[in-house]
Specification:
Helices cover 0% and strands 61% of the residues. The protein is mostly beta strands. It has an 18-stranded mixed β-sheet that branches. Strand 1 and strand 2 form a beta hairpin. The chain is globular, with a radius of gyration of 18 Å.
Length: 243
């Protein structure tokens, strides 16, 4: 178990070593602080763990902007068979500059984004998001592969691919979202064998930030079910859809 250093001013634990959590009832804010920040250049692992009823505060005592209730900065991160439930913060889980694998995890009832990866490389396998008020999965400046994941009832996008990211999306299902998959700001997505259900727009490609270019996506074997629009692009963005 890594050493913990309490940030008594803002309720975070600051952990400056690898974190290893396994086979525990979980993390609840009636007995623990408002989340943790892990800073490491080694491998951190979380297996079979439940994180519930946690409210992130947004900034720690050293002035760092902490958008996630649970944040990893640096190193390799392995997260398997975990539940993140009833999380109140901008991101339930935020990975920054990590090489990661996340598998068989569930995010449920998040007040904003469920999962956010910034400047990361990794894989998301067999994960699901249920009832988040913003994006299910949000990546920026990252290269991420999504395999057999689901998002149900997202307030904004099922997946947001932004700021020069590359996403490979296979076997993905989004049910209920403003945009099933959003690709923006010089990002590229390759999408295959995926289903978008009850979305205002299935695929949405655009440039949001002027410092970035336009977006591109190639989609193969994608099903649109009860979507108001299958796809939408701005003037410079391109989507290619094939059966």
């Amino acid at each position: 178990m890594a050493g913990f250093s309490p940030d008594k001013y803002h309720g975070f634990w600051i952990i400056e070593k690898p974190l290893h959590l396994k086979f525990s009832y979980g993390w609840h804010n009636d007995t623990y602080p408002d989340g943790f920040l892990v800073i490491s250049d080694s491998t951190s692992t979380i297996t079979d763990y439940k994180f519930a009823n946690v409210k992130g505060r947004g900034i720690d005592a050293k002035g760092r902007n902490i958008t996630g209730s649970f944040t990893f900065y640096g190193g390799k991160v392995i997260i398997k068979d975990c539940l993140f439930e009833n999380i109140t913060s901008e991101d339930a889980l935020n990975l920054i500059r990590c090489d990661f694998v996340m598998e068989n995890c569930t995010f449920r009832n998040c007040t904003s984004d469920a999962f956010d990866a910034d400047f990361c490389t990794g894989k998301v396998i067999n994960c699901k998001v249920e009832n988040c008020k913003n994006d299910g999965f949000d990546i920026s400046g990252s290269k991420v592969e999504f395999i057999n994941c689901t998002v149900t009832n997202a307030g904004d996008k099922g997946i947001s691919v932004g700021e020069g990211s590359t996403a490979t999306i296979t076997g993905f299902t989004v049910t209920g979202a403003t945009s099933g998959i959003g690709i923006k700001d010089l990002s590229y997505a390759k999408i295959s064998n995926s289903t978008l259900v009850n979305c205002a727009t299935g695929l949405n490609l655009y440039r949001k930030k002027p410092e970035f270019g336009y977006a591109k996506a190639d989609a193969n074997g994608i099903k649109f079910v009860n979507c108001t629009k299958q796809s939408a692009t701005d003037i410079g963005s391109v989507v290619n859809i094939s059966k």
